[in-house]
Write the structure tokens for this entry.
Amino acid sequence: MSANAHPQTIGVLLAGGLARRMGGGDKPLREIGGRSILARVIERMRPQCGALILNANGDPQRFGFTGLPVVADDIPDFAGPLAGILAALDHVAAQHPEIAYVASVAADTPFLPRDYVSRLHAAREAAGVPLACAESDGRTHPVNGLWSVALRADLRHALVVEDMRKIDRWTARHGVAHAAWPVTPVDPFFNANSPEDIDEAEALIARHGEI
Ligand SMILES: Nc1nc2c(ncn2[C@@H]2O[C@H](COP(=O)(O)OP(=O)(O)OP(=O)(O)O)[C@@H](O)[C@H]2O)c(=O)[nH]1
């Protein structure tokens, strides 16, 4: 087993958004370097977690080829990534009650670090808090983080009763650690939001090889 394996953590790939900047459709199914972004994210996350699930809305069949369980938001009207994280926490509590943590990653992040989950756990443990969030280039990446399953009732309350949408606002309430990654040769949290970003990712692979 790799040093970066966390069998007691379940990974969720977040693919539940509307992808307006990409012109709609599923960003993670776009290809770079001849492979879908989703296949790249799965390949990087799988060795780091005990199991993976996918958060997506609409017809789950389009992701059937991955073999991953697909969980949909149950908060209506595309309430944002927190709704996808809540769907993952609820799924894990129901199906894997022994699991205490979920690691989330935007499914449009093709260069995700291979030590992602272990460094989030280390930061969280060092700070003694229930949440951790990734950082690079002086910016936080709130959708990429580690979430305590035990906080799911509070998250539901925040979304449904308080109408909370900003991730940082909710995490600050419980305590969140930050883990920072270097940005060479590329920012590992580069994400492909637009057709121009797909071109940029192709250029990065052409320049650096498979990163
Ligand atoms: N479950 C869920 N995930 C979301 C929602 N909105 C965004 N996300 C996810 O959150 C991450 C960051 O989303 P963005 O890139 O900001 O939003 P997007 O909808 O994917 O794209 P844009 O419409 O171009 O902003 C991605 O992994 C999205 O799939 C939502 O309403 N529900």
Observations:
- The longest strand covers residues 139-148.
- The chain has one domain: 6-208.
- The pocket of guanosine-5'-triphosphate is lined by residues 14-21, 55, 73, 78-81, 83-84, 106-108, 143, 193 (CB under 6 Å).
